Amino acid sequence: MQSYDVIIVGGGPAGERAAIQAAKLGKTAALVEQEHVVGGTGVNWGAIPSKTLRESALFVQSLTARKQDGIRCSIAGDISIADFMYRERLVVQRELELINRSLDRWAVEIVQGHGAFIDPHTIGITGVGGQMRVQLAAERIVLAVGSRPDHPEGLIFDDEVVFDSATVLRMPRLPRSVIVLGAGVVGVEYASIFAAMGLAVTLVDTRPQLLPYLDEELVQRLLRELKKLGVVILHDDHYAQVEKLQGHPPSVRVHTRQGLCLEADALLYCVGRTGNTADLGLANVGLTANARGLLMVNADFQTAVPHIYAVGDVIGYPALASTSMEQGRRAVRHAFGVPQHEREAQPLPFAIYAIPEVSYIGDTEQTLREQGHDIVVGRGNYGMNPRGQIIGDVGGILKLIFDAQNLKLLGVHVIGAQAAELVHIGQAFLYNGATAPQISETLYNYPTLSDLYRHAALEALQAHRHRMAGTPPA
Q1: Same domain, yes or no, for 442 and 371?
Q2: Distance (Å, rounded) from C-alpha 212 to C-alpha 223?
Q3: What CATH number is given to the structural domain containing 248?
Q4: pTM of the model
Q5: Are 344 and 46 in contact (CB under 8 A)?
Q6: What's the domain count of the chain?
Q7: Does residue 157 lie in a domain region?
Q8: Comparing C-alpha atoms, which of 147, 148, 146, 142 is closest to residue 9?
Q9: What is the pLDDT along the chain (474 residues), one digit of tens a residue?
Q10: Are residues 307 and 208 in the same domain?
Q11: In this structure, what are the phi and psi dihedrals at residue 377, rounded to the nearest 5 degrees?
């Protein structure tokens, strides 16, 4: 039996930051990770690899499709899956080196193996063969076990023609065509990436409307851009049957509930995720996960057993790497009685790393109107911005929504290059209660996409003046 001040189960972003926070407080921490590397899904199989692949796809697209005036480029020969994934492996390896260096610096002990409760204060570690290797004890335990892609019964994920979001980047060959089943964030991202790589893509949306929580104006622009890439989008449908077609190489056939028959070289299934709690031994400590494998926690991330905390994807929404890291830090600070600033609930920035990029913070125009808010809207168009012209992105838009009474900013919605970066300017404005006049009078470097904020605010002010004067906008 080895004893620590805290045991963290799961070495993803939430667990890593929880362990380092404990070490910074002078506590001994054991970080249990069942995979051969730390970093979790985000670093090894999810966010970092997929975003790196996106940049490679954008680079190829810039050479083949988005030719600048007077410059013509071409790529000799076919690009293989190894070509696309080479840089991804370099980036992931570098990120893992940084994580391990940080954990080593703070003397966090990494224990490799599968962790499960033996009793409320003891975690048993089993190896590959299922044999108990060691038992760890601690007064406080943090669960940061993450989630995994759903695998519906009857659908065989063979990693040859049928993949999920954790295995799709390990495809044995680059397919010519892909069916993406599920049009959530992951599905939309991969559909656009594959299309930019030159693959024929069919995106099957199980809902009647694409990304219904996004601002409707941005959704329409996103749909338009996806179709320009060649993505075929089918709404309100799901698979009824999936067949593997033998051949050299094999392919896949999908029969949908609407009666369609789709064929492609590969299928990516990305509908839903499940918390990794099934084999944690929760019954040994009196905890129960919900139907999606998620744990309920209070505002301090305590489960029903007060000394056991849960953070990250395993507690559900918002399931972002950024929020998971903060949850890990705050859970450990609370566990050891460290005072921390109690922040008011604030809207979080979200990003969809599709092609084009989409990001937002705050309420949408349709939500505010449905709630009866009186609002004014201003837009900054990439096509009328010199930096947008320089980089060749003329279809993007930055949309700002203001309260019509006091002109305070209520929402920021961006589609286009660097949207996930641009939204943080709006985040700062939003958190500080900025108004349209203040945003319009802020100076920005020229030429920059950031200057879109000034143009959007000026347009909103003009719309407000026309409203007050009772005259139609120009």
Answers
A1: yes
A2: 12
A3: 3.50.50.60
A4: 0.89
A5: no
A6: 3
A7: no
A8: 142
A9: 899 999 999 988 899 999 999 999 999 999 998 876 676 665 555 577 778 888 888 877 776 665 555 666 666 556 666 677 777 777 777 877 887 788 888 888 889 899 999 999 999 999 877 788 899 999 999 999 999 999 999 899 999 999 999 888 888 888 999 999 999 999 999 999 999 988 999 999 999 999 999 999 999 999 999 999 999 999 999 999 999 999 999 999 999 999 999 999 999 999 999 999 999 999 999 999 999 999 999 999 999 999 999 999 999 988 888 889 999 999 999 999 998 777 666 888 999 999 999 999 999 999 999 999 999 999 999 999 999 999 889 999 999 999 999 999 999 999 999 999 999 999 999 999 999 999 999 999 999 999 999 999 999 999 999 888 888 776
A10: no
A11: -125, 140
The answer to whether residue 226 sits within a structural domain is: yes
DSSP letter string, 418-469: THHHHHHHHHHHHHTT-BHHHHHT----SS-GGGHHHHHHHHHHHHHHHHHH
Q: How far apart are CA 192 and CA 203, in angstroms?
A: 9
> Which residues make Cβ contacts (< 8 Å) with residue 385, sequence separation at least 6?
447, 449, 451, 452, 455
Question: In the block, which residue shows the tokens 């001994």?
Answer: 28
Distances (CA, A) of 78 to 82, 158, 161, 251, 354: 11, 26, 20, 20, 24
Same domain, 267 and 279: no
Q: Is residue 341 part of a domain?
A: no
| 265 and 280 assigned to the same domain | no
Nearby residues of 326 by Cβ (< 8 Å), 6 or more positions away:
17
Q: Are residues 246 and 124 in the same domain?
A: no
CA distance 317 to 323: 10
Provide the total of helices (H) and of strands (E) in the chain, helices listed first. Answer: 12, 22
**One domain, residues 141 and 282:** yes
**What is the span of the domain harbouring residue 182?**
162-271
Asked if 120 and 57 sit in the same domain, the reply is: yes
With respect to residue 454, please indicate whether it lies within any of the assigned structural domains: yes
What distance in Å separates the CA atoms of residue 283 and residue 303, rounded to the nearest whole number? 13
Domain boundary among 271, 295, 325: 271
DSSP secondary structure string for all residues of 338-353: -----PPP-PPPEEE-
Cα(293)–Cα(309) distance, integer angstroms: 15
Location of structure tokens 């004890």: 137
